[in-house]
Amino acid sequence: MTAIRIRRIPDQDAPIPARHPDELLSVLYAHRGLSDPAEAAPGLGTLAPVTALYGMEAAVNRLVAAIRSEQSILVVGDYDADGATGSALAVRGLRDLGARRVSFLVPSRFSNGYGLSPAVVEAACGQGADVILTVDNGISSHAAMARARELGLSVVVTDHHLPGDALPEADAIVNPNQPGCGFPSKHLAGVGVVFYLLAALRGRLRESGWFGADRPEPNLAERLDLVALGTVADVVSLDRNNRILVEQGLRRVRAGRACAGVLALLQVAGRDPARATAADFGFFVAPRLNAAGRLTEMSLGVECLLTDDPDRALAMAQQLDALNRERRAIEGAMKEAAEAVLDALILDGDSLPPGLCLFGEDWHQGVSGIVAARLRERYHRPTIAFADAGDGRLRGSGRSIEGLHLRDAIDWVDRRHPELIEYFGGHAMAAGLTLRPGCLEPFRDAFVEAVRVQLGDIPPTPEIRSDGALPAELLTLETAEALRFAGPWGKDFPEPRFDDVFEVVEARLVGDDRRHLKLRVAPPGGAVIEAIGFGLGERIEAARGAVRLVYRLDVNSYRGRQSLQLLVDHLADPVEM
């Protein structure tokens, strides 16, 4: 297990200077750069303006023409949760705006690969589409655009991924990360870009007198449950703009105004919509939605989010839940195999290369990204897990660590060894690629060198951030409730963590696989508190006497009774700082 350094923000030994949950929140927001607590979740009226998105006018012009002339619009989304929510939002939103011929297509991870391809364009033409609207993809689809022009199809791209050296020749491109775009929030998820497009469309249609008694103007804010889910699921930075979208969506979920599919997914996950948080979306709903794209086809997930029939939504959510259980079983087997490969790589007991590339002949393409993430967490190395993509090609999914831009590292390899990679794309923290036949070993060597260029031979010691020691009088259910709804918490606006020394009263292993650590602990001079560390079962021998815990406050609900619980993220010796 990689050593972890606990870093307090700010670096101080004294407990947090707060005696009441409201005072605590002010301190925690200040730790995250907000001097005014009201800025934690501002209203919809303060969103960045639609007009700031470059390419929006051209996209609106083409789609307004399609809506007015009743042309067929085909939404082509990605096969992850961002793509699924974005596709459902696009279909629902266009229909809300009066489009009469709207359908969707999600490329197969296994037969089509990622994004808009010439084959997908040909399928769209075969379905009678006049306009293709991409969601969460398209910024790198040069060959597909050329094929669309040959077939006489228009393509409007909505995406948020980083572009390459040249943009595809689409009819319009809306992407906050394209050159020349001055949109202030570069972290919009794919579903967020779609929401902005729909808002711009509504504005143009309103100006032209499109809406009336027979065609009421829709309230697009009622679709923010989908925006919130996709934004959280894609783990984009929760900057000010994204916090607005997520918080406003969660408020609608808690008020019972979410679509039937979102409510059904919360139900099968055992989460209460009235108490829904970003964590519920990220850890419980998103994995079930993603399971469809990982193991079969994401069409099931999109249909679940499109139906207004609660019974049908629940039936599909149950299918997604079953797929997620299957995904977890596959992931477990792959993770064991990957760790066995890592054991073989260890040279003198504990040294590993600065970057990891692993391949299993029987690994599943749809789960390789999750395995890469688990190994990245365990060994603190940027990791790419490859699975067989057929015809000798390998498809990899990678996850990075802080300080290493994964897409740039892969681009570094591609520029020096253009014969290795067939396709790649992604972000700083996650990326995907396809290797040509016989290229795994030379790619592995080149990738390790690319990591060395950015990080050196040994990656920096991982850190776990703590807001400090929580005063004993704030270790209460009231504080846990206040923190639960004070977010939304997420990437770059992290959920509050605290650290302190506790006396272990009891420690035992729980869970079907006995991987989780159940504790009863006591703070200095305080009462015993229940705590659980998911995935920390291997630390049970260290859970004796005085230990330092890095933890979050949680509300444990059991048989209608609520109590305080600590969620333990790290268990260390008392002196480890």
UniProtKB/TrEMBL annotation:
Keyword Hydrolase: yes
Keyword Transport: no
Residue ranges of every copy of the RecJ OB domain listed in the record: 467-569
UniProt xrefs under InterPro entries: DDH_dom, DHH_sf, DHHA1_dom, RecJ, RecJ_OB, SSDNA_exonuclease_RecJ
Domain (DDH): residue spans on this chain: 72-231
Domain DHHA1: 358-451
BP-aspect Gene Ontology terms: DNA recombination; DNA repair
Entry GO MF terms: 5'-3' exonuclease activity; nucleic acid binding
Keywords on record: Exonuclease, Hydrolase, Nuclease
Classification via Gene3D superfamilies: 3.10.310.30, 3.90.1640.30
PANTHER family, per database record: SINGLE-STRANDED-DNA-SPECIFIC EXONUCLEASE RECJ (PTHR30255)
Family: Belongs to the RecJ family.
Protein name in UniProt: Single-stranded-DNA-specific exonuclease RecJ
The species this protein was found in: Allochromatium vinosum (strain ATCC 17899 / DSM 180 / NBRC 103801 / NCIMB 10441 / D)
Lineage, uppermost ranks: Bacteria, Pseudomonadati, Pseudomonadota, Gammaproteobacteria, Chromatiales
